[in-house]
């Protein structure tokens, strides 16, 4: 995707272990381009934060290289890396005012007083906190503190900013507002951002690319749309967005289509993305919004019957939980644009989907 | 049921009777004594030589207590009317003071049935029966100082005898020694001390060794300081040193020059519950034969002149009263200390902390 | 919306609502008060009352008023210039006679002896002699018995005794006393020790506090940053002294530090010293032993504050470009100040009251105020002096606490 020469940040065969037995990060290779907004997404313990900390300099890789602008930095102490960082709990210095917090990185760099003032003003204006300069962190709300932390990480003009779940402590509404704000700042400044989160919607909203981590390995590295539309394995499909999973066995492969025998359902046509071959088990992945209720017979390559278990009204859409192939958690999402479907619990319905919306992936 | 009640009732009656017994027999209560002394080897000698024989002879129960010679303790007892000590061994100076304050009984020599004139220092004591003569002496360890001090001036000679000295943390004795070491003849010591200049001179002399003094507060500490080699020489009561040599095999030596002879006397705090029994004990304890007994255990000279005849000749050279030792002896002037003790103690305390 | 609605209903019938609230509040307050009541009574009877009584003792002194009532009432008319007239002497003779009969002459002598040393025996002997005196000219007779009664300062002292309150003990505690004409003068230099003692107490307390801080801070830092399995062990070692009696610990220092103790023997065996060093019965021993005892008191508040300082602060500072030491000094250290303030204040105030440790391992020149409180209580039985010294120490402590509070602010302190 990116040429080696062009990589702004490069992880090369990086491994990390804390106890000498289990690898927290396994053979990581990752190139990040200048100006990119890259998100490391994964459940806790997947190795994403460790990767970030190795880049920041707070952890040493057990093996491998980390390059920043082509220079190896594994042994460079954190304060010489010139990387801005935003922490989960803001880490604003409680004994300093907002202004002093922002001045800290500038004073360390021995900038002149006038220059410091200009930069502080600019940074505070950027996060719209111009009038809060004299306050202490404890006198600010969570969102304001987060903006100060952001300003502080940017005030000394680093080329790279790391953010470790910076919005985790905010409530939903504020979080969504901050996501956009960060995204806009990124666009305005053109700074490279590496962002760690376990919240997939946050990742989808903000990122240029997302690296999905699990078990110390990058499962898939792609744009948000690519990840959602074309997950490469069952973990990614499950982790990003909502997903119906059916397990079965491949019985035939024919060009771009494979036939999977799902117990209790019969044969299902699917796209073979990540299957090992005929007679091997597979997981079928199917997005709930791609399932059609009571389709005209013959209009879809896969049509099955199901029992309605539950009907959930959600305003803009309606969710039907149905029993398919002895599983009770098959979800269908219907837009509320054509009137609420007239089905009730216990009713027998038919469900249909296209072959290209059903992806045959590795067995979980 | 009724049997159980009867038994309970019987026990209750017995308990009541038992509880009432001490009240019903006040005569029994007077047949006991509490005797207080300075503890250590001295009290042990008193116990073996006088207290135990008396208890054996009369069957009177005797309880012992110890104190450090503080007048204030006796004063507090008398003032709060809670006198639990019947007989106390006190220093003659303290006895004079307590007598003047009226907190100890005046001695009725007729009741004692003894001749007051036979007792050393008895003429100065209206409220005390002289028990023994002790000496405050300078002691050293022959193992560390093979050629020890020979006069009291050596105590102040830091050049010939470098190292720490132990001294009693009271002015008594120390200021007398300071003057003698400064050249005042022994017989003139108290004359000089009765002038403000004399006091000044004594403290100035003490100043010269102040930094090299380890102060002791109880009699047992002095030989201990020597044994621990914390000091090269120390003032001590001769009996304590004698005891350490005799019973602990130490090679301590007493330097008898300028020994300060003090008198221990028996006193009876006012308000004691067993005055008659106390008199009975005194008559027994200070009789010539009995007062010689403690010298078997402790080298303090009996105050009853007639008791000397009963003392084992072998022990005589260890007593302060031996003729050789008396040549350079200083008799402590109890009237000087009774008059000036408070003031000098206050000044001494202030001098110590500066 | 809900609160607004409530307010509107409230304003409609405000009075009953407020009354209702008050009733509920009163019940709640009463319940809370009942919960603290036992402790309050305990503190009142075991703390406030005795200390109040002690402070009262420092100024209350009615010995002369009580034991010499005739003299005191006669003296009210004395102008304080020349010696009093015959009437006063007659009253004195009557009081002395009475005191000899009541055996209280010594108490009078003791009281007068405080202010005029050397008068004790003169008073008691006067009382004895007066008891057999029969004359009409008491003035001459008394002066004949003892020239003491012709001394002007004696009469000034007796005149002051006609009040049940005296500033003598407090004055004496700051090296002042009454002169011959009841004017306030400096105590003679050979008795003026208390200012020195108070300064010494302050100095030793500051030294010990500083020593505990310097020794305790790094350990607290280590404790706060080590993983739990090591820090628990270290913590046990830190608080171990708490579980041993002060007396035992102090005696252990004697064994270690004495002239031929372990430390000296070891240093001499290693040929670091040729002569044993003087480590005990002086200032060194006092400060070493006190520092050892006080160390946990300083360390624990610092530790508990350090525990709450998230390591991300230092990380943030590092990421912002600060070197390890700069980040520690500018970011970590200032955040430990509340703990340091609390620990140091605790140790300092506890040090001010030290008694047993300096008495056991200090020399005569290392005794602090409490030693003299004990000295006057136990040895001299001069409770007035003991109370005055105690009251001044207590006041000084409160003032220091107040000043400290103004400077640092106790609300910013954290005891953990």
From TrEMBL, chain A:
What's its catalytic activity?
Answer: ATP + H2O + polyamine-[polyamine-binding protein]Side 1 = ADP + phosphate + polyamineSide 2 + [polyamine-binding protein]Side 1
Keywords, sorted A to Z: ATP-binding, Cell membrane, Membrane, Nucleotide-binding, Translocase, Transport
Q: What is its main location?
A: membrane
UniProt GO MF annotations: ABC-type polyamine transporter activity; ATP binding; ATP hydrolysis activity
Q: Where in the cell is it found?
A: Cell inner membrane
Where would I find the ABC transporter domain in this sequence? 9-240
Q: How does it sit in the membrane?
A: Peripheral membrane protein
Q: Where are the transmembrane segments?
A: none
Q: Which Pfam families match?
A: ABC_tran, TOBE_2
Q: Which GO terms describe its cellular component?
A: ATP-binding cassette (ABC) transporter complex
Enzyme Commission identifier(s): 7.6.2.11
Summarize the protein's role. Involved in beta-(1-->2)glucan export. Transmembrane domains (TMD) form a pore in the inner membrane and the ATP-binding domain (NBD) is responsible for energy generation.
The family annotation for this protein states: Belongs to the ABC transporter superfamily. Spermidine/putrescine importer (TC 3.A.1.11.1) family.
Self-association state and partner proteins as the record states: The complex is composed of two ATP-binding proteins (PotA), two transmembrane proteins (PotB and PotC) and a solute-binding protein (PotD).
Concerning PANTHER family, the annotation shows: SPERMIDINE/PUTRESCINE IMPORT ATP-BINDING PROTEIN POTA, SPERMIDINE_PUTRESCINE IMPORT ATP-BINDING PROTEIN POTA
Instruction: Identify this protein by name.
Output: Spermidine/putrescine import ATP-binding protein PotA
UniProtKB/TrEMBL annotation, chain C:
Q: How does it sit in the membrane?
A: Multi-pass membrane protein
Q: Where in the cell is it found?
A: Cell membrane
TM spans, by residue?
32-56, 197-221, 233-256, 280-303, 340-361, 381-404
Database matches in SUPFAM superfamilies: MetI-like
Which keywords are on file for this protein? Cell membrane, Membrane, Transmembrane, Transmembrane helix, Transport
Which GO terms are recorded in the biological process aspect for this UniProt protein?
A: transmembrane transport
Task: Tell me any Pfam family this protein matches.
Answer: BPD_transp_1
ABC transmembrane type-1 domain sequence ranges: 198-404
Q: What is its main location?
A: membrane
Could you give one GO CC term from the UniProt record?
A: plasma membrane
Oxidoreductase as a keyword of this entry, yes or no, is: no
User: Is Cell membrane given among the entry's keywords?
Assistant: yes
Protein family: Belongs to the binding-protein-dependent transport system permease family. CysTW subfamily.
Can you name this protein? ABC transporter permease
According to its UniProt entry, this protein's organism is Bradyrhizobium rifense
């Amino acid at each position: 995707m990116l040429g080696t020469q062009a990589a702004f940040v490069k992880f090369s065969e990086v491994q990390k272990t804390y106890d000498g037995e289990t690898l927290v990060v396994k053979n990581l290779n990752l190139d990040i381009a200048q100006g990119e907004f890259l998100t490391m997404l994964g459940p806790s313990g997947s190795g994403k934060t460790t990767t970030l900390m190795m880049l920041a300099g707070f952890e040493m890789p057990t093996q491998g290289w980390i390059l920043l602008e082509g220079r190896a930095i594994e042994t460079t102490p954190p304060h010489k890396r010139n990387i801005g960082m935003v922490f989960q709990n803001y880490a604003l210095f409680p004994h300093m005012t907002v202004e002093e917090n922002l001045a800290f990185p500038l004073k360390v760099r021995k900038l002149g007083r006038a220059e410091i003032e200009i930069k502080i003003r600019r940074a505070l204006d950027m996060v719209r906190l111009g009038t809060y300069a004299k306050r202490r962190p404890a006198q600010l709300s969570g969102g304001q503190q987060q903006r100060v932390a952001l300003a502080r990480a940017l005030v000394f003009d680093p080329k790279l900013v790391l953010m470790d779940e910076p919005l985790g402590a905010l409530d939903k509404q504020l979080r969504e507002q901050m996501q956009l704000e960060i995204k806009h700042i990124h666009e305005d400044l053109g700074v490279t951002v590496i962002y760690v989160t376990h919240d997939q919607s946050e990742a989808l909203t903000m990122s240029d690319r997302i690296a999905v981590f699990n078990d110390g390995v990058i499962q898939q590295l792609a744009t948000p749309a690519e990840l959602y539309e074309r997950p490469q394995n069952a973990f990614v499909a499950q982790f990003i967005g909502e997903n119906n999973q059916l397990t079965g066995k491949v019985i035939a492969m024919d060009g771009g289509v494979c036939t999977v025998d799902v117990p209790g359902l019969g044969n299902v046509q699917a796209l073979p993305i990540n299957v090992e071959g005929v007679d091997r088990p597979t997981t079928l992945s199917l997005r709930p919004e791609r399932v059609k209720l009571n389709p005209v017979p013959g209009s879809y390559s896969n049509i099955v019957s199901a029992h309605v278990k539950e009907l959930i009204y959600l305003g803009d859409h309606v969710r039907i939980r149905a029993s398919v192939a002895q599983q009770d958690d098959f979800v269908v999402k219907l837009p509320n644009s054509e009137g609420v479907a007239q089905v009730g619990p216990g009713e027998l319905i038919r469900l249909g989907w296209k072959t290209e919306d059903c992806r045959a992936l590795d067995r979980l | 049921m009724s049997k159980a009640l009867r038994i309970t009732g019987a026990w209750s009656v017995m308990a009541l009777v038992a509880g009432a017994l001490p009240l019903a027999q006040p005569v029994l209560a007077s047949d006991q004594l509490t005797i207080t002394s300075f503890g250590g080897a001295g009290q042990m000698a008193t116990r073996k030589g006088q207290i135990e024989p008396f208890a054996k002879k009369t069957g009177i129960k005797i309880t012992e207590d110890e104190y450090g010679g503080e007048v204030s303790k006796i004063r507090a007892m008398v003032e709060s009317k809670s006198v639990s000590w019947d007989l106390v061994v006190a220093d003659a100076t303290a006895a004079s003071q307590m007598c003047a304050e009226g907190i100890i009984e005046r001695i009725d020599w007729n009741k004692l049935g003894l001749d007051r004139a036979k007792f050393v220092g008895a003429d100065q004591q209206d409220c005390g029966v002289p028990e023994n003569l002790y000496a405050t002496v300078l002691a050293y360890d022959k193992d560390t100082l093979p050629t020890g001090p020979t006069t009291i001036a050596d105590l102040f000679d830091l050049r010939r005898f470098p190292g720490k000295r132990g001294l009693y943390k009271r002015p008594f004795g120390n200021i007398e020694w300071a003057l003698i070491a400064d050249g005042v003849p022994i017989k003139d010591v108290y004359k000089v001390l009765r002038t403000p200049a004399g006091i000044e001179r004594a403290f100035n002399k003490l100043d010269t060794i102040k930094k090299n003094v380890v102060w002791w507060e109880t009699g047992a500490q002095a030989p201990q300081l020597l044994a621990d080699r914390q000091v090269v020489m120390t003032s001590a009561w001769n009996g304590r040193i004698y005891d350490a040599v005799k019973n602990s095999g130490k090679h301590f030596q007493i330097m008898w020059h300028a020994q300060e002879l003090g008198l221990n006397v028996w006193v009876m705090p006012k308000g004691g519950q067993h005055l008659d029994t106390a008199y009975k004990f005194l008559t027994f304890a200070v009789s010539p034969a009995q007062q010689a007994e403690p010298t078997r255990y402790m080298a303090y000279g009996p105050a009853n002149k007639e008791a000397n005849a009963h003392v084992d000749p072998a022990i005589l050279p260890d007593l302060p009263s031996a003729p050789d030792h008396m040549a350079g002896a200083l008799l402590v002037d109890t009237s000087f200390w009774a008059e000036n003790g408070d003031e000098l103690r206050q000044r001494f305390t202030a001098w110590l902390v500066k | 919306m809900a609160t607004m609605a409530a307010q509107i209903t409230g304003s409609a019938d405000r009075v009953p609502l407020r009354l209702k609230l008050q009733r509920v509040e009163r019940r709640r307050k009463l319940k809370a008060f009942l919960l603290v009541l036992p402790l309050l009574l305990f503190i009142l009877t075991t703390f406030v009352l005795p200390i109040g009584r002690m402070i009262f003792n420092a100024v209350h002194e009615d010995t002369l008023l009580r034991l010499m009532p005739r003299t005191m009432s006669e003296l009210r008319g004395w102008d304080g210039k020349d010696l009093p007239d015959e009437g006063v002497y007659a009253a004195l003779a009557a009081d002395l006679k009475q005191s000899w009969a009541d055996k209280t002459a010594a108490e009078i002598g003791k009281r007068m002896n405080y202010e005029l040393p050397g008068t004790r025996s003169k008073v008691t002997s006067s009382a004895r002699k007066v008891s057999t005196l029969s004359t009409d000219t008491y003035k001459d007779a008394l002066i004949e018995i003892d020239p003491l009664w012709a001394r002007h300062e004696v009469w000034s002292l007796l005149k002051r005794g006609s009040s049940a309150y005296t500033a003598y003990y407090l004055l004496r505690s700051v090296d002042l006393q009454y002169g011959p004409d009841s004017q306030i003068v400096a105590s003679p230099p050979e008795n003026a020790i208390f200012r020195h003692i108070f300064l010494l107490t302050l100095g030793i307390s500051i030294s010990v506090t500083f020593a505990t801080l310097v020794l305790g801070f790094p350990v607290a830092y280590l404790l706060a940053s080590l993983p739990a399995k090591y820090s628990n062990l270290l913590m046990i070692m830190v608080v171990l002294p708490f579980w041993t009696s002060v007396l035992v610990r102090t005696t252990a220092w004697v064994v270690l530090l004495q002239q031929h103790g372990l430390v000296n023997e070891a240093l001499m065996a290693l040929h670091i010293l040729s002569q044993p060093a003087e480590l005990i019965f002086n200032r060194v021993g006092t400060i070493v032993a006190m520092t050892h005892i006080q160390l946990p008191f300083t360390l624990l508040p610092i530790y508990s504050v350090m525990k709450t300082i998230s390591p991300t602060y230092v990380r943030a500072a590092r990421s912002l470009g600060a070197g390890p030491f700069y980040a520690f000094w500018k970011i970590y250290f200032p955040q430990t100040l509340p703990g340091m303030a609390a620990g140091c204040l605790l140790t300092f105030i506890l040090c001010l009251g030290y008694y047993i440790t300096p008495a056991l391992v200090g020399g005569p020149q290392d005794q602090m105020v409490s030693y003299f409180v004990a000295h006057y209580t136990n040895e001299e039985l001069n409770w007035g002096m003991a109370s005055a010294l105690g009251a001044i120490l207590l006041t000084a402590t409160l003032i220091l606490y107040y000043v400290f509070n103004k400077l640092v602010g106790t609300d910013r302190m954290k005891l953990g």
